[in-house]
Amino acid sequence: MDTLSRMAAYVAVVDAGGFSAAARLEGRSKAILSKYVAELENRLGVLLLNRTTRKLSLTEAGQSYYSEAVEILQRISDLEASVQDSHVDVRGVLRVAGPRTMGEGPIMAAIMDFVRRSPQVSLDLKLEDRFVDLVEEGFDVAIRISELADSSLIARKLAPLRMVVVATPERIAASGRPSRPADLSAVPCAIDTNARWRANWGFVVDGKRQSVPVSGPVEANSPLAVKMAALEGIGFAMLPYAVAREEIQAGRLEMVLEDFICDGAAIYAVYPHRRHLSGKVRAFVDHLAVWFEDPAHREAVGG
Questions:
Q1: Which of these, 160, 168, 143, lies nearest to 271 by C-alpha position?
Q2: 143 in Cβ contact with 240 (< 8 Å)
Q3: What is the structure's pLDDT at 162?
């Protein structure tokens, strides 16, 4: 029997005014409680209770121990309640990392909708065009837009992500419209160095995956910068549809090689642990998953 259990038995006996009353309140036998208190006294080497057939009283050491024990047990109870609540209640600071492209568009709309619906959550959002180390940097969740590499992290797929190859009408007229993915090796391209594929763009040709090496005058660690390069007519670019959607709809960019684009890229919520997942993280990830089940929201990312 551990010390805390003996301590709790002692406090229960004192609070109830005797072993019999404590046994009734605690749903335990009088003999068990008497045994626990005796073991506690033996461990401490002092007498805590003066026992008579009619009355129970505390010794001086017993009174001092009782006062401290009540405080310790209450602090433990408060700690357990706090930890349990933090894993059930949706509250506290939620630290989220993601790419700068999340600064606008459907993913940010989903995140802000969660904040609006969760008044006890404070969002600490960091947008950087790099893969953060969730554990080392203390993030609760990261939003990753990619084909997910093998990882010790837990990942939940939120929505498929449509990739497109785009260029301005002027660039297509000057370089020629590619008819096969291999044609991209002979035209200038703007390369997103943050993407896993970097300068080797993946396609499906005749049912098989094919990697096409590309090059060009612009490499940037941001799809927004790559999109700007494409808009300036500098070259072709591979981008998430959500990033280029407005420009495509307005005719400023045109899609090419649509029949050869690989499936597999997606939006993921990534977090370090599955066990004892906090309420705020679980609620946040669940909210994003439900959000992207809406056909209108999924269409916004080309899913």
A1: 143
A2: no
A3: 86
Domain 163-260 belongs to what topology? D-Maltodextrin-Binding Protein; domain 2 (3.40.190)
Q: Are 134 and 275 in contact (CB under 8 A)?
A: no
CA torsion sign for 271, 275, 280, 283 is positive
**pLDDT surpasses 90 at 264:** no
Supply the pTM of this predicted model. Answer: 0.60
Alpha carbon distance 225, 145 (integer Å)? 16
Q: Does 147 score more than 60 pLDDT?
A: no
Superfamily of domain 92-161+265-300: Periplasmic binding protein-like II (3.40.190.10)
3-86 shares its CATH topology with 92-161+265-300: no
First CA to last CA across the chain, in angstroms? 58
Range 17-20 contact pairs with CB under 8 angstroms and sequence separation of 24 or more: 17/56, 18/56, 19/56
Selected from 3.30.420.140, 1.20.1530.20, 3.30.450.20, 1.10.10.10, the CATH number assigned to the domain covering 3-86 reads: 1.10.10.10
Residues 281 and 271: their CA atoms lie apart, in Å, by 8
Over residues 223-245, the pLDDT tens digits come to 889 999 999 999 999 998 888 99
